[in-house]
């Protein structure tokens, strides 16, 4: 077994080694091999392409140089010796090979009286919220491994989710969802949502999405408190819901095997796709937003390409919880068994990467990857666990996006900046690249004289062939019927005649507004 972690060697590198590393990184940023320009006969074109190739080379060298300072860490991964399978490697073997700081991230918290637990991490991976079904809620600082706040709400808690930062979180309790601050103080009780089964937060739009036990989907703006949308899915009770991080569309899995995708400005689903013959048990989106994994009761896990709505791969196995890591690893859980699949070849073909079995009898409720760390959090019936999954997290963080070491001042500035950049609900759509593009105005082609005459003749024929009801007391006389048909023909002709008369220029006899009559008089006097 070989566990490759971040390389931080202190041996001074020679110039040759540095130049080789730079060449390797430069190749990564070049757009393939350069074109063969010697065979070109057009000298002018050849000169232009030579300049272009030089610019490509300079930009690739600049990107490679910046990578050395901006992305100092390399992603670790698990590699087997010879024919050794990576999924046979146990957590004890990994813990003995990694450094002390990484081994501290592997632990088990046993709380048998309040489970099963559901977990949620902040986007930076610094804080974690754990909620037990029997009312226990805890906020944990994962860097210091210390509990910030623990509270007992004394009723059922079905789900928990952080809002825009770690200072506020929402909990789906027995009757209504509640919003608390980090000190455990109750701030809001959102009675309009009802008995919520699942919560999701749209960070770019500051919308709290929930689905209740009646299948109603609610969107509430947490900045103004306004209820943006209340949609009836009409597909029954479900607790399978996930937000696509790419476009903000909410996907809901139903008991009929369908997955519907919603946005707050539409009463009908954007997409309704049949994914499984039985109920959908779990749902997850890849960070790039183009892949979706679904699990059904028929013991199948399907990976979908959302650009074409096609199945890329079908994996066998039952699953109660799914989650994608930042690097694209897929974690699945059923019973007390957790499996991690990896796209090791880069061809979107997932194979078994790692497996882990928690203590016998523990029933896993949720698996979620910790951002910017090679760690998988597991919430189960007896507490929660944390295991090491090499290669799952992004090794380099952008402090403008998610900073695990941010201070309170930086947090305040980020909150203000994100509020200024808040997107309206109308920007949620399947293809967000269309935002900002202008639809070209279609010029209406004017119908020709022959087309107008043909339309008028067709309307007259239709008016003549109208079936007249037979009436008593002399109202169905031939003369009366002929008169009615003549009226119908004149009525059919009227719109075409009005169009023709509207095109005529106004004459002197045409009645004009009083403000324009003086101009007509002057013209007449001048004549």
List keywords for this structure.
30 strands; 527 residues; disordered C terminus; four-stranded antiparallel beta sheet; single chain; alpha+beta
What is the strand and helix layout of this fold?
Layout: E1 2-4, H1 15-29, H2 43-70, E2 77-79, H3 91-97, H4 100-103, E3 107-110, E4 117-121, E5 127-132, E6 136-141, E7 146-152, E8 157-162, E9 168-173, E10 177-181, E11 186-189, E12 196-202, E13 207-212, E14 216-221, E15 227-232, E16 240-243, E17 250-253, E18 258-262, E19 271-274, E20 280-285, E21 291-296, E22 300-305, E23 310-316, E24 321-324, E25 330-334, E26 337-342, E27 351-357, E28 364-370, E29 375-380, E30 383-388, H5 408-420, H6 449-464, H7 478-502, H8 514-526
Antiparallel strand pairs: 1-2, 3-30, 4-5, 5-6, 6-7, 8-9, 9-10, 10-11, 12-13, 13-14, 14-15, 16-17, 17-18, 18-19, 20-21, 21-22, 22-23, 24-25, 25-26, 26-27, 28-29, 29-30
Task: Give a quick precis of the structure.
InterPro entries: BING4_C_dom, WD40/YVTN_repeat-like_dom_sf, WD40_repeat_dom_sf, WD40_rpt, WDR46/Utp7. The protein is of the alpha+beta class and 527 residues long. It has eight helices and 30 strands.
> Which outline best applies?
extended
Q: How many helices in DSSP terms?
A: 8
End-to-end separation in angstroms reads: 106 Å
- Secondary structure class reads alpha+beta
Gyration radius, to the nearest Å?
Answer: 34 Å
Low-pLDDT runs: 5-12, 523-527
Tell me the strand order in the biggest sheet.
Answer: 3-30-29-28
Helix content: 10-25%
Tell how many strands the DSSP assignment holds. Answer: 30
Q: Hey, roughly how much beta strand do the residues contain?
A: 25-35%
Instruction: Let me know the largest β-sheet.
Output: 4 strands, antiparallel
By oligomeric state, this entry counts as single chain
> What does the average pLDDT come to?
85
Main location: nucleus
Subcellular location: Nucleus, Nucleolus
InterPro entries: BING4_C_dom, WD40/YVTN_repeat-like_dom_sf, WD40_repeat_dom_sf, WD40_rpt, WDR46/Utp7
Domain BING4 C-terminal: 352-432
């Amino acid at each position: 077994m070989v566990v490759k972690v971040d390389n931080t060697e202190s041996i001074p590198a020679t110039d040759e080694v540095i130049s080789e590393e730079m060449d390797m990184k430069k190749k990564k940023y070049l757009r393939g091999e350069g074109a063969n320009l010697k065979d070109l006969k057009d000298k002018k074109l050849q000169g232009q392409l030579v300049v272009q190739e030089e610019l490509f080379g300079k930009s690739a060298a600049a990107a490679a140089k910046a990578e050395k300072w901006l992305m100092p860490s390399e992603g670790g991964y698990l590699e087997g010796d010879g024919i050794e399978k990576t999924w046979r490697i146990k957590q004890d073997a990994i813990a003995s090979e990694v450094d002390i700081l990484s081994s501290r991230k592997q632990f088990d918290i046993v709380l048998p009286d309040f489970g099963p637990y559901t977990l949620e991490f902040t986007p930076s991976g610094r804080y974690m919220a754990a909620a037990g079904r029997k009312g226990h809620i805890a906020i944990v600082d994962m860097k210091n491994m210390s509990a910030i706040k623990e509270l007992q709400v004394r009723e059922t808690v079905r789900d928990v989710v952080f809002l825009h930062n770690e200072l506020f979180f929402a909990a789906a309790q027995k009757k209504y969802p509640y919003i608390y601050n980090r000190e455990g103080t109750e701030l809001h009780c959102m009675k309009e949502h009802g008995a919520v089964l699942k919560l999701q937060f749209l960070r770019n739009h500051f919308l709290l999405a929930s689905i209740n036990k009646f299948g109603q989907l609610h969107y509430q703006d947490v900045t103004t408190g306004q209820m943006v949308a209340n949609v009836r899915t009409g597909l029954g009770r479900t607790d399978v819901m996930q937000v696509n991080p790419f476009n903000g569309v909410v996907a809901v899995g139903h008991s009929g095997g369908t997955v519907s995708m919603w946005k707050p400005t539409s009463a009908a689903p954007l997409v309704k796709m049949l994914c499984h013959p039985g109920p959908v048990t779990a749902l997850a989106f890849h960070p790039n937003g183009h892949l979706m994994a679904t699990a059904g009761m028929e013991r199948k896990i399907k990976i979908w390409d959302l650009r074409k709505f096609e199945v890329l791969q079908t994996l066998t196995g039952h699953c109660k919880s799914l989650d994608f890591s930042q690097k694209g690893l897929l974690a699945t859980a059923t019973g007390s068994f957790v499996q991690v699949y990896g796209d090791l070849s880069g061809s979107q073909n997932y194979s078994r990467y790692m497996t882990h079995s928690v203590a016998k009898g523990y029933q896993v409720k949720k698996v979620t990857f910790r951002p910017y760390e090679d760690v998988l959090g597991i919430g189960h019936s007896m507490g929660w666990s944390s295991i090491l999954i090499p290669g799952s997290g992004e090794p380099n963080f952008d402090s403008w996006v998610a900073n695990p070491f941010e201070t309170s001042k930086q947090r305040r500035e980020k909150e203000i900046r994100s509020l200024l950049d808040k997107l309206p609900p109308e920007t949620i759509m399947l293809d967000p690249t269309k935002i900002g593009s202008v639809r070209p105005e279609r010029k209406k082609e004017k119908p020709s004289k022959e087309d107008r005459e043909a339309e008028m003749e067709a309307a007259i024929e239709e008016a003549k062939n109208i079936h007249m009801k037979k009436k008593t007391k002399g109202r169905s006389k031939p003369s009366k019927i002929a008169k009615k048909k003549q009226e119908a023909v004149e009525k059919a002709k009227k719109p075409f005649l009005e169009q023709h008369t509207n095109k005529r220029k106004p004459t002197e006899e045409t009645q004009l507004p009083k403000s324009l009559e003086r101009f007509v008089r002057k013209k007449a006097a001048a004549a």
